[in-house]
Amino acid sequence: MYSAILDEILDGRLPTGAHLIQEQLATDLGVSRQPVQQAMALLKADGLVEEIGTRGLKVAALDFGRMNNHYDIRAVLDAYAARASAQRVRDQQINRAAVEERLGRILQAGRDAVRAASFSDQIRQDEAFHKCLYAYSGNAVLAESAEPHWRFLRRVMADVLRHAEPPPEIWDQHTEIAEAIVAGDPDLAQSLAQSHIDTAARKLSRSAQDHAQAHMGEKVAS
């Protein structure tokens, strides 16, 4: 149920400020009110919905400070994942050819999603790439640690990609990270992953704020 409501927020069917009427959501989703209430509690904890006084809940506006905080943590986690993955390739703990083949499939799927202008697929493949590194790192709790940050940042990515062209270098950067991992170069993989997240955070923050300001301008003009 959480995923179903989150998908509607990501797709823009539940836009920022939308009043979330639990009875209506339960009817639309064909469930009782209880799972909707449980999903709302999780969405609120993730900063995706917020209270409207005594009137219930609404889809929260993007919190740019919180977004940057999430990216700060992801930069640490993703840099570690890239470094550990490259070390394991270098030390022959994981098969170099298998890593190259799997990452290559994701990179191709990501570029295909950009050409198809499918922001949902772009987000899906972006997440698949990074989660692949979490898995290759050999740290069993890394993906679990990163998940709360992904839940919030999926919303940011979706909101930006609906209104702006995706930064073209994203998949070039992914390719460079993958090549460093396959080459078994931990220092380079870590540096590239850190730079990639820092760059993504700056660009997404700027795009999201530009859109928010433009939207406010449209409201004033109307």
Describe what this molecule looks like in 3D.
75% of the residues lie in helices and 4% in strands. By secondary structure, the chain is mainly alpha-helical. The protein has two domains: 2-59, Winged helix-like DNA-binding domain superfamily/Winged helix DNA-binding domain (Arc Repressor Mutant, subunit A, Orthogonal Bundle), CATH 1.10.10; 64-219, Up-down Bundle (Four Helix Bundle (Hemerythrin (Met), subunit A)). A hairpin with a 5-residue loop joins strand 2 and strand 3 (57-59). The longest helix is centred in the last third of the chain and has 36 residues, at 186-221.
Task: Give me a quick take on this structure.
By secondary structure, this protein is mainly alpha-helical.
Short descriptors:
3-stranded antiparallel beta sheet; elongated; disordered C terminus; Four Helix Bundle (Hemerythrin (Met), subunit A); 222 residues; single chain; mainly alpha; Arc Repressor Mutant, subunit A; 9 helices; 4% strand
Assign the CATH class of the largest domain. Answer: Mainly Alpha
Number of strands: 3
The termini sit apart by 36 Å
Secondary structure class reads: mainly alpha
Number of helices: 9
Helix/strand order, N-terminal first: HEHHEEHHHHHH
In CATH terms, what is the architecture of the largest domain?
Up-down Bundle
CATH topology of the largest domain: Four Helix Bundle (Hemerythrin (Met), subunit A)
Instruction: Please mark out the parts with pLDDT under 50 across 5 or more consecutive residues, or reply none.
Output: 218-222
Kindly report the average pLDDT value: 86
